[in-house]
Amino acid sequence: MPDVPTDLDLRKLRYFVAVAELLHFGRAALALHVTQPALSRQVRQLERDLGVVLFNRTSQGVTLTAAGEQFLHDARALLAAGQAARDRVRRIDAGEHTLTVGFMLGTDVTAALNAFSAGHPDVPIELVRIRWWDQAQPLLDGTVDVGFVRLPVDSDDRLDILPLYPERLSVVLPARHPLAGEAGIRITALADRPVLQYADATPAWAAVWNAVPRPDGTRPPQGPVFHDMEELLGYVRAGRGVVLVPEPVAVVFPRPDIAYVPVTDVPPGRVALAWDDARRSALVTDFVEAARSTLRLRE
């Protein structure tokens, strides 16, 4: 007999996420303004609904099972999608037409925004920062309508992609490094240096934007993992490793104790525009055309 489909209760998902993030039923109950027994019952019921155990419960505390770790990722995405859906229908019901545009640090959104706004002067535009480790998710869950991303995007072909323009790469070095004053260097000059790791980047993305593995197939020593530019710069200053960044990112973060040196023998990465065609609106169509007409000329 086939399994009967189970409807997931968003309230139970919120309860689960609170416990998973705090790893404490008491503190989660306080944050949710519910009693601890009621919270425990709801989480137990969710586990029964799913047919899996989400938490290891011991006298020492609470930890997530492997299934719980995966479900935390999925539950966050479902909650975000639910909130995005509520926001969209409320805006439509109120007669509002807003375009939400995602962007990655350093991507050139100005030309497309100006071209779109010239034809839609009354449409508000909201900008939302996208991170390298979840470029696809805000587009798939509806948090943003269209987004500037750096290829490749791990979306299982669920997104439409318009390639836009290339970005050359620079290596980030301490200003005291012997190569810091060079006009350009080859990647082989960094062969012995540990390379900082973009947190949770897919191997395909790291291959393009951090040249790992190197063009000759070798892998440099691994340095620390970083989550943002401040962490990156801190590790580089301390001599813990080097890393490649798109040249426009280097422009955004000038520092007297940091040098950005172009790397001459790795191919550039490419910025693209991405959107979920299942939710493509007339505004998204017009924005795509604005980006196509203004940014694809930059080869």
TrEMBL record:
Q: Which GO terms describe its cellular component?
A: protein-DNA complex
Q: Which family does it belong to?
A: Belongs to the LysR transcriptional regulatory family.
Q: Which UniProt keywords apply?
A: DNA-binding, Transcription, Transcription regulation
The HTH lysR-type domain is annotated at 8-65
Highest taxon above the source species? Bacteria
Q: Is this entry keyworded tRNA processing? A: no
Signal peptide start and end residues: none
GO MF terms on file?
DNA binding; DNA-binding transcription factor activity
What is the protein's species of origin?
Streptomyces jeddahensis
- The name of this protein is Hca operon transcriptional activator
